[in-house]
Write a structure and sequence with these properties.
Elements: H1 8-15, E1 26-28, E2 37-40, E3 44-51, H2 58-71, E4 76-87, H3 92-109, E5 112-121, E6 128-136, E7 152-156, H4 161-170, H5 172-176, H6 181-189, H7 197-205, E8 210-213, H8 218-230, E9 233-237, H9 245-254, E10 267-271, H10 274-283, E11 288-295, E12 300-304, E13 307-310
Parallel strand pairs: 4-5, 9-12
Antiparallel strand pairs: 1-2, 2-3, 3-6, 4-6, 7-10, 7-11, 8-10, 9-11, 12-13
Helix pairs in contact: 2-3, 4-6, 4-9
Amino acid sequence: MKVGKIPENVLKRSILKEIKRKRSEVLVGATVGGDCARLCFGGDTLVSTAVADPASGGLKHAVYSAANNIAVKGGEAIALQLTAVYPADTEEQQLKETMRELETYCNDLNIQVSGGSTEISEDVSKPIYSVTVTGAIENEAVETKKAGPGDSVVIIGKIGLEGTAILADKHREELMNKFPADMIYRAQDFGKLLSVRKAAAIAMKSGVTAMHDISRGGVFAALWEIAESLGVGLETDLRKIPVMQETIEICNFFDLNPYEMVSGGAIIAVTSNAEELIMNLGKEGIDATTVGILTDSNDRVLINGEARRFLERP
């Protein structure tokens, strides 16, 4: 199998289909495009897990991705557990540095590290991290079933910021031979914009009917996944999808597609009142753009001027 997310048909056939045991406390379990479970123990609890991939931002990506999954369901991330497996040649100092790094992210997100597991193994050559974040909902959760044809599709933030920051960090010297240094520094700073906590809270108060953070697979994958979870089609105008010039330039340099790049810090929101949502976000200095509309077909269409094509299954 190819490296990265498993294909959707494999997910359905070999993973989701095999989950047969059900409990009443699990209100929303594993689904396509459902990155966050919803549990009920007298009150609503959200649980989200992310595995750190060195090629996609490592531990930082995992922490923010798991916390963002909680935020876009209308919850507040509260506690984090870290499972870490290190190679046999690991020194204790590396454990301390990892925890200090983790605490920096948790401090930004107001999350407490509540436990976890740390092991040393001869079966790994690099550290492997799995992050589980638990959160709670005070009011009503975002229920995607409320959204439907005619609702607007809004992107909050800019796509590709996380991937741009990763590339700028890993290839800084190479990029500085091609681009001005201040541009590369700006690109690196995109890594400070990965949390959707504030934007999601404003969107909740603005009456959104569905939200999905844009993570691995980029905006194309996220558009497909939110349409799949709603059981609807959509039409999206490619030229309206917000992307920074730094992202475009760096993607062109590496021959990458910015619309398929990991995009932590951005959200797809569905709403029946896009103007109110965009206005409320704008008051807090957060950009948002209407990029499309849900339809009553199963077609997921991408429009680019006169050209129309179908989004591919991620």
